[in-house]
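**Backbone shape codes:**
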Amino acid sequence: MGRPELILRDAFGVRTDGADLGEEFKGLENILRPSIPPNHDEPTLETRDALQDALNLLERAAETIERYQEREIQMEGQAQAVVHRAREEIKAAEAKVASAEARAFEAEARAQSAERRAEDAEEWLSRLQQSITAAFADRLGTTKKDHGSRLVA
């Protein structure tokens, strides 16, 4: 674990000398560097306990920040995986759409071709029917004429 003042500086951009402390960190410099009474060379037990409490608090804060950063990295990785999977699904869907459009275009071309062939076939059938009808009409007309002339004679 690093030094508390370095952790604060790196995590929050806070200088522990009190120069850049905002309202939310007011008084923090007193926790990090409690004043030592001028008559004492050694910090008192109370001061040491306060320093230890401050260090423990800073260590817990640093651990919490680390956990949040690790969670952020994990979530970012998951988000990137989701984005990658979505892009792959979009590519697959676009390929399916393109394939379906191509099949639809081919089907339309085949339908138009079949329609032209059906129209041609109807035209030929109509001509055939006219030819057959005309042939029978000629044949029946000749037969009636022949048959009528035999009856007269």
